Amino acid sequence: MIALVEALREAATAVEQEKEVLLEMIHSIQNSQDMRQISDGEREELNLTANRLMGRTLTVEVSVETIRNPQQQESLKHATRVIDEVVSKFLDDLGNAKSHLMSLYSACSSEVPAGPVDQKFQSIVIGCALEDQKKIKRRLETLLRNIENSDKAIKLLEHSKGAASKTLLQNTESRFN
């Protein structure tokens, strides 16, 4: 019976994670560079479809509650607060926020990290329930992936602007020569 209960919890957790992945994929498609390279009509149709899919995905509610003692509850609140503070500073200093997130992520990793580890955050996370530790790590992975995708989009945009400026400059020079 215990194995059935654990299998149910694992299946529900997998559905929660699948929902997160779907929402991230839909959001990624909506903000894709490729969306700029299609016609207005196609873009509008894709956005409508994406919004419909987003709405349908959000109607799926799956909740796996974690049993926590008061100390674990406090540790989870503290860890969430630390991450939220870093996220709130994204727009002010993206590079610093990214490196801070990396040190938080390293604190959650069982592997030898490539960079610095936030020891204080690590001790907070260790105080959390095991399921919460996994959720914190997944949240940090998602945030880092979103930053990476944003960096790529910005670089592509800058590259395309640079290429467009260069073409415009060449066209202008050829007209005057």
Automatic annotation (TrEMBL):
GO terms, molecular function: adenyl-nucleotide exchange factor activity; protein-folding chaperone binding
Keywords, sorted A to Z: Acetylation, Chaperone, Coiled coil, Phosphoprotein
Coiled coil segments of this chain: 130-160
Gene3D superfamilies linked: 1.20.58.890
SMART domains reported for this sequence: BAG (SM00264)
GO BP term, pick one: positive regulation of proteolysis
Domain BAG: 75-155
Keyword RNA-binding in record: no
Tagged with keyword Acetylation: yes
Oligomer and partners: Binds to the ATPase domain of HSP/HSC70 chaperones. May interact with NWD1. Interacts with HSPA1A (via NBD), HSPA1B (via NBD) and HSPA8. May interact with DNJC9; the interaction seems to be histone-dependent.
Functional description taken from the UniProt entry: Co-chaperone for HSP70 and HSC70 chaperone proteins. Acts as a nucleotide-exchange factor (NEF) promoting the release of ADP from the HSP70 and HSC70 proteins thereby triggering client/substrate protein release.
PANTHER family: BAG FAMILY MOLECULAR CHAPERONE REGULATOR 2
Name the UniProt record assigns to this protein: BAG family molecular chaperone regulator 2
